[in-house]
Amino acid sequence: MIKKIAIQGVKGSFHDQVVSEYYGSEKTLLECSTFDGLAQAVANGNSDQAVMAIENSIAGTILPNYALLDEYELMIVGEYFLSIQHNIMAISGQSMADIEEVHSHPMALLQCKKFFREFPHIKLVESHDTAEEAMKIKHNNIKGRAAIAGVRAAEIYGLQILHKSIQTIKNNVTRFVIIQKQKLSQQENITKAAWKFVLDHKRGSLATALNVISDCNLNLTKIQSLPVIETPGKYAFFVDVTFDQTTDYFKAKSLLEIMATSFKVLGEYQSGKS
Q: What is the pLDDT of residues 140-185, one digit of tens each?
């Protein structure tokens, strides 16, 4: 039974919102300051599962998080797509004219850059987490400072939202993965998988692997590469595939296991709705 869920950030963060929406019932949260700490918490058994951001529709893939899954031998068992709505919030009774600084995660500041062109007097300050800044403002009663975070953070910490949905691109979606130490035993309902493989360093090896994926009727939804540290000039490929028939999937998987110099499954699960 899943009881404790690790998240990056604090209560009120987007990770916390995913926990609330994905699990549909109250769960004990383990708040982690970094993604590395989150991965460690799952690996050492301090949490049953974790919610980890893996990709944003604006910023792209969070590639270091794929590396963490690989390093700590963790498995993706589900995914959830969350519409990210950035809101500027502060202690009640203030207006934008009263705000001197806005503190938030660098990615949140970047995604709201255009909004702040209208307020050149405001200094933008990069910080560790979105919801954590909201918490600091409330706990320390800091006037003249605002945070960028989700509505959930404003509700939890009792802050006033000065402007809603201030991100430049309104259709801003982050894909989160649900991870745990052991893979799920049930495999008949899977429609998506994540792999890591290394190929021989010779011409056409990647093209051949991609042809296998195509010929087996798998849809390649993502491919990223990372250098193999122990072997300069060689790369590991992180791949996401979707499929309709598990027979097609297992055929492609068996072929690539033979072709690759190393092959690892990072997750087999049912794809979420974006």
A: 999 999 999 999 999 999 999 999 999 999 999 999 999 999 876 6
Q: CATH class for domain 192-269?
A: alpha beta
First to last CA, the chain: 27
Which two tokens mark 118?
């209208």
Residues paired with 174 in a beta bridge: 56, 82
Listed as ranges, residues in the chain with pLDDT below 70 are 184-188, 274
Residue 81 near residue 178 (C-beta atoms within 8 A)? no
> CB of 15 within 8 A of CB of 8?
yes
Kindly give, in sequence order, each residue whose CB lies less than 8 Å from that of residue 199, ignoring residues fewer than 6 positions away.
205, 206, 209, 237, 259, 260, 261
CA 159 to CA 11: how far, in whole Å? 14
CATH 2.60.120.10 fits 4-83+173-180, yes or no: no
**CATH 3.40.190.10 at 87-163, yes or no:** yes
Q: How far apart are CA 252 and CA 247, in angstroms?
A: 9
Amino acid occupying residue 39: A
Ranges for all domains in the chain classified under CATH 3.40.190.10:
4-83+173-180, 87-163
